[in-house]
Amino acid sequence: MLFHRQHRSEPTFEDRIRQAVANGFAPERLPSGSVRFHRGACAVLVGRAANGDPQIETAGILVDGELAELVDRGYQKFFETPTGRRLPALAGQLKALHAFEEDLRKALGVESWYNESLGTVNQSHRYDRLLGREASSVRP
Predict the structure, then answer these.
(1) What was the pLDDT predicted at 139?
(2) Using an 8 Å Cβ cutoff, are 42 and 100 in contact?
(3) Which residues of 114-123 are buried (b: 16+ CB within 10 A; e: fewer)?
């Protein structure tokens, strides 16, 4: 008697997108091939990683149809749109964004790292006290 192991098939990018839609996330396909998911005011831009898995590229809130990304300015967090509009991040928005990201990660089958599970993280740190420091450090 031989025992044959059943091979598990790895879900494709499209399978994971369909799974997120089944879990109540509204998708919007973009010309770049990315998918923007939103629920309420929160939105996440999901792209395809090199290995074909979904990868969260940008997370934030929708402001007049634009995805405003979370930015840390050193003394406070802000949401900034691609057109430069800046809004202070409120505690309720940060909690909603964190819950949204965690739910979407689970629906997509994307790993959630320890630091991401602790709270809302951001990719951009723009401290005012550092602006122009590179230019002033160059001496003739």
Answers:
(1) 47
(2) yes
(3) eeeeeebebe
Q: Which amino acid is residue 37, in one-letter code?
A: F
DSSP run (H or E) holding 59: strand 54-63
**Reported pTM:** 0.73
Domain layout of the chain by residue ranges = 13-113
CB atoms within 10 A of CB 46: 25
Q: What is d(CA 74, CA 124) in angstroms, rounded to the nearest whole number?
A: 11
Backbone angles phi, psi at 68, to 5 degrees: -90, 120
Query: Does position 106 have pLDDT exceeding 80, yes or no?
Result: yes
DSSP state of 12: P
The set of residues, in sequence order, having a beta carbon less than 8 Å from that of 64 and lying 6+ positions away, is 81, 85
- What is the predicted pLDDT for the residue at 42? 92
Tell me which residue has tokens 């991040």. 89
